[in-house]
Design a protein that fits this description.
Length: about 130
């Protein structure tokens, strides 16, 4: 029902900024909460942020709080992740994911999501 495609990944120096986009298909996209996750080589997929359908509820992992901002434009079926003050430890494949469930702190778990994008690589050099 929902297909997601991430874009905007690339190489950036530490301290720099990068913006990611998640393009969605599906007529019911606006009703889904959307999360961002990342996965570094040899590590578990890690929660980054989640945003409700109305953008009224947003939360971030402590590791990115104050540096990353997620937003969405339901009319455009787009979700964004603006990453500032990037650190080498932010390196990884970034995924967006959509959840049909009720918005809650449970969205930190990968199991809460029904649809996933293919991922986009973000590399932060020191």
């Amino acid at each position: 029902q929902v297909q997601l495609v991430e874009s905007g990944g690339g190489l950036v120096q530490a301290g720099g900024s990068l913006g990611l986009s998640c393009s969605a298909s599906g007529r019911t996209f606006s009703s889904y909460a959307v999360g961002w996750f990342r996965q570094a080589p040899g590590k578990e997929r890690e929660f980054v942020s989640a945003i409700s359908w109305s953008s009224g509820n947003i939360f971030y992992a402590d590791s990115v709080k104050g540096r990353f901002t997620t937003s969405r434009d339901n009319a455009k079926k787009m979700v964004y992740l603006q990453m500032n003050s990037l650190k080498p430890e932010d390196t990884g494949v970034y995924y967006c994911a959509a959840s049909r469930g009720i918005f809650s702190k449970g969205l930190v778990a990968t199991t809460a999501y029904d649809y996933w994008g293919q991922g986009t690589q973000v590399t932060v050099s020191s």
